[in-house]
Design a protein that fits this description.
alpha/beta; Rna Polymerase Sigma Factor, Chain: A; 16 helices; 11 strands; 48% helix
Length: 375
């Protein structure tokens, strides 16, 4: 095992799974951003790891070394190149870095071999497990579940007065500020729709979202015969982490299971797209492809920071993300027409590059910041 982002939440929980299964897993490399060097040093000592990297460039070099599994638990766009390096080296990738698929989806899809990526996100892990119950041709649709966040059931008008303190109080999961706010706006679920589209090669119009506040059913797959398979467990990230590390075999006692001796009620309801338009917006970005998902993601990060800093209302997050995406899509269409005219018979086109993605990311951040100043 090589663990990237070892001092973050995913990395720490992965090492917990590994520590409880020393006969099964061996850590040969650790990488982290450098914000917690004491913890990184302790992890290296505990697991007897000689190869330790600090920083994105060093993590990318480490990811390319031979290993059975590379777990990418890095945060942000810096995780994209390590993902690409791990895949290019032929390593199996346990992927928890959303940005690899959101901003670099076409790049990842181009080089990933079938089955080379094992999703760590709980929803995509659930989908992968359920998809094993049928053939690709038998899949009718994927159904991602969403807790609905702390504001489930509120109208758009009621959401306008939401404070950062209220938005940071997630009812189920303990996460960092960005992901917690994205869960409250349902941007996170929109990003997961894009991820599912890239990971499983299912059209956007066959990926649904349903609100399930108990967060016990992590996602479902509906098959063409009318049956639906669901993956069910109490909320605990160690389960999808263990599944990704140990596949095709399951890791015993990776996390506690459901207590079927106690009565329980599970609720499911449709998403209110008027109050929470983020998922529809993400569908537009995902369907457009190219650098549009990168723009969606980057603009959101700037808007969330502005909201947490008191410079943007809660509903302004998705409003400005939508405005930035609209501008980008209009310009992308014009650029596509201009590029087509320039190529004049060259049907190969120009493939997306890491530089393209990072340029779009930078533009979206700058444009979102400009629009925030106008609010």
């Amino acid at each position: 095992m090589i663990i990237l982002g070892s001092t973050g939440s995913i990395g720490v929980q992965a090492l917990d799974v590994i520590a409880r299964n020393p006969d099964r897993f061996r850590v040969i490399g650790l990488a982290a951003g450098g914000s917690n060097p004491d913890l990184l040093a302790e992890q290296a000592r505990q697991f007897g790891v000689g190869d330790v990297a600090i920083g994105a460039d060093e993590a990318a070099d480490l990811a390319a070394r031979p290993a059975d599994v590379v777990l990418n638990g890095m945060a942000g766009a810096s995780g994209l190149v390590p993902t690409l390096r791990a895949l290019a080296a032929g390593n199996t990738l346990a992927l928890a870095n959303k940005e690899s698929l959101i901003i670099g989806g076409p790049l990842v899809a181009e080089i990933a071999a079938p089955g080379q990526i094992r999703p760590v996100d709980s929803e995509h892990s659930a989908l992968a497990q359920c998809l094993a119950g049928g053939t690709p041709g038998e899949v009718r649709r994927l159904i991602l579940t969403a807790s609905g966040g702390p504001f489930r059931g509120r109208s758009r008008e009621e959401l306008a007065a939401v404070t950062p303190e209220q938005a940071l109080a997630h009812p189920t999961w303990s996460m960092g500020p960005l992901v917690t706010i994205n869960s409250a706006t349902l941007v996170n679920k929109g990003l997961e729709v894009i991820e599912a589209h890239v990971l499983f090669d299912i059209p956007m119009d066959r990926i649904d979202v349903v609100v399930h506040p108990q967060s016990i059913v992590h996602s479902m797959v509906e098959f063409t015969d009318g049956s639906t398979l669901a993956q069910v467990s109490p909320p605990d990230m160690r389960l999808p982490i263990a599944w990704a590390l140990g596949w095709p075999d399951r890791v015993p006692d990776a996390a506690p299971g459901c207590d079927w001796t106690r009565a329980a009620t599970w609720e499911f309801s449709p998403v209110d797209d008027h109050a929470f338009p983020a998922i529809s917006l993400a569908r537009r970005a995902g369907a457009a492809g190219g650098t549009a998902p990168a723009v969606f993601n980057a603009a959101d990060e700037i808007c969330v920071a502005a909201f947490l800093g008191g410079r943007l209302p809660f509903t302004g997050i998705v409003d400005i993300v939508g405005a930035v995406l609209d501008e980008h899509l209009a310009d992308q269409l014009g650029e596509a027409e201009r590029a087509s005219a320039r190529r004049a018979g060259d049907h190969g086109g120009n493939p997306l590059s890491v530089a393209d993605v990072l340029a779009a990311d930078g533009w979206a951040r700058a444009r979102a910041a400009e629009l925030i100043e106008e609010v």
